[in-house]
Write a structure and sequence with these properties.
Elements (H helix, E strand, L loop, with lengths): L8 H27 L4 H26 L15 H25 L11 H6 L6 H25 L6 H14 L2 H4 L2 H21 L3 H12 L1
Helix pairs in contact: 1-2, 1-5, 2-5, 3-8, 3-9, 5-6, 5-9, 6-8, 8-9
């Protein structure tokens, strides 16, 4: 257990540096680009590129500063065969829940997200689509770091796991209410529970990453 006098300091700092700051920087770049006549589709791709390229080194630096191995945010340890079976169950559950949630949020209509591939293809900017994928990858890796730090340094209801999930809900899921609406924030909160229950069930940080991309594709 970390110093009880500052139970959540590391996780809060990680949230600021690896999640909030890159987003703010990307927003500033996007507004600057729009003010100079660059079209919205290109601006969205540019913002994703800026955020991803900013966030990735910040994740590495912050993890190192707080003595977290970078590999433990992505794939270490890999799930074994029993854990892979559990992972498959979680993938199906998340896919079904995402389908239902998307139908409710969109008032009955459903279209696969495909990680926003259709948007990039329809605007002829597929060369920027890889940056969107990297953006999503760095986002979930940043959340993995926040979860691990919160779980390591804080307890809630005598449980580090509950503390970690609660921190992810408060700092990642609920803020979606300001950017995408209340329904999305509620769904993101449910998703946070699923992602990190899956993490604990399989013991691998790869699980939230796979489940996150399942959501993005469904």
């Amino acid at each position: 257990m970390e110093n009880p006098s500052m139970p959540i300091k590391e996780a809060v700092l990680a949230w600021v540096f690896v999640l909030v700051l890159p987003e703010l920087f990307g927003l500033l770049v996007a507004r600057f680009a729009l003010s100079h006549g660059i079209g919205k589709p290109h601006v969205i791709g540019l913002a994703s590129m800026v955020i991803a390229s900013t966030r990735l080194p910040l994740i590495v630096y912050t993890a190192r500063a707080f003595k977290v191995e970078a590999a433990s945010l992505i794939y270490k340890p890999l799930p074994g065969i029993p854990q892979m079976i559990l992972l498959a169950v979680f993938i199906v559950a998340v896919a079904v829940i995402d389908y239902l949630a998307t139908t409710i949020i969109s008032n009955g209509s459903y279209k696969p997200q495909l990680a926003e591939y259709k948007y990039y293809a329809s605007h002829g900017i597929l060369h920027l689509f890889p940056f969107q994928l990297i953006y999503y990858f760095t986002e979930i890796t940043a959340v993995n770091l926040m979860y691990l730090l919160a779980k390591r340094s804080w307890t809630l209801l005598s449980s580090p796991i509950i503390a970690g999930i609660s921190f992810v809900i408060l700092t990642w899921a609920l803020p979606h209410a300001f950017t995408k609406g209340v329904k999305v924030s509620i769904y993101a909160s449910i998703l946070a529970i699923l992602l990190y229950t899956g993490y604990e069930a399989t013991g691998s940080p790869l699980t939230p990453i796979i489940l996150w991309f399942t959501v993005l594709l469904v």
